[in-house]
Design a protein that fits this description.
This protein folds into 3 domains: 2-35 and 147-234, no CATH class; 40-133; 256-322. The protein is mainly alpha-helical. The chain is elongated and about 115 Å long. The protein contains 14 helices and 2 strands. A two-stranded antiparallel ribbon has the order 1-2. The longest helix has 42 residues, at 256-297.
Length: 323
């Protein structure tokens, strides 16, 4: 009965139980792909790769022990030179060097200039262009947020907008008697914290996407709440039913009004049957109690030593005690 009633209610209001999962199913693949793109921008953006290629070619042509210098630089950015080919002899090796250069910050580039003396005059302009292309509002999108830098705003804003988006979705006050209310309250408090932790673990570019998506979701929910506040529930139901009936007509199904009324009749029939069954059980229980009472009131007719006879003896003893 509950499942049938919920199904009829969902059809009436045009609600899909799986509708809340759709945005997450769309967003997660984007976040995973975005992480790969930001973490390895040169591999996906050919123009950026061309700039890094210029730096690599200048370093290869610089002379000296190229492999030793590149190996020392790799250790500074936690790249194991024993597992990655950094000789620059093949295209795959050059790609590895480019990926390593993509992790350089200003300090690492200064170390690069010191290792390859005089190379700054050749590639300094290119490196400056690369640094600017990887930054947004002074934040390096390929690095993780720092506690003492402006990038700390990314995890903070991600948590704030996630909290605001969750609050605006609660258009009705929480019911303390609802067993799911505590779980929802816990999730609303936990999800912003999870956003903050993830933004600290991922590059700033992914965190910036997280902030933007949360902010857009918050603004969208505010607009939806404002629309629903100024709209009639009956009009919304009527539009949902009309939209659903068009789909049902294409599928060869009866209109939702007939289906809903049939569901109501089925529910009413089931309810009446349940009430009739309860009345029969109550009548049987009352008859059993009455029969037991008659047996107690007539102990002489009961077999000696029987349960009814003993019950009569107890009753007589209680009456004598009262007198």
């Amino acid at each position: 009965m509950q499942q049938a009633e919920i199904q009829a209610l969902n059809e009436k209001y045009g609600f899909s139980p799986m509708g809340g999962c759709l945005p997450l199913l769309v967003e997660m693949p984007i976040i995973i792909a975005l992480y790969q793109v930001i973490y390895r921008i040169p591999a996906y953006v050919s123009s950026i790769r061309g700039l890094y290629q210029t730096v690599v070619n200048a370093a290869l042509a610089h002379g000296g022990d190229f492999v030793t210098k590149i190996t020392d630089l790799a250790k500074a950015v936690n790249v194991d030179p024993t597992k990655v080919d950094l000789t620059g002899a093949t295209d795959a090796s050059i790609n590895n060097i480019i990926d390593m250069f993509a992790k350089f910050d200003a300090t690492k580039w200064n170390t690069f200039y010191e290792s390859f003396s005089g190379i700054q005059s050749q590639v300094g302009t290119t490196v400056d262009h690369l640094t600017r292309s990887n930054t947004f509002l002074g934040i390096n999108l390929m690095e993780r947020p720092e506690l003492l830098g402006i990038s700390i705003l990314i995890p903070i804003l991600a948590g704030v907008f996630q909290f605001l988006a969750a609050k605006t979705m609660q258009v009705a006050p929480a019911n303390n008697d609802d067993p799911n209310a505590g779980m929802m309250k816990g999730m609303n408090a936990t999800m912003p914290l999870i956003s903050v932790v993830f933004c600290f673990m991922l590059p700033c570019g992914v965190g910036l996407y997280w902030v933007a998506s949360s902010a857009i979701r918050f603004i969208q929910q505010v607009a939806v709440n404002g629309f629903l506040k100024n709209s009639s529930v009956e009009d919304i139901i009527e539009k949902n039913i009309e939209k659903r009936n068009k789909k049902r007509e294409k599928q060869g199904l009866p209109p939702i009004r007939e289906n809903a009324s049939q569901n109501v009749r089925n529910l009413q029939r089931m309810k009446e049957e349940e009430e009739r069954r309860e009345r029969v059980l109550k009548e049987r229980a009352a008859a059993a109690r009455a029969e037991a009472g008659d047996a107690v009131n007539q102990p002489a007719r009961q077999a000696p030593g029987g349960i009814a006879a003993r019950a009569g003896m107890v009753k007589d003893f209680n009456e004598r005690t009262k007198k």
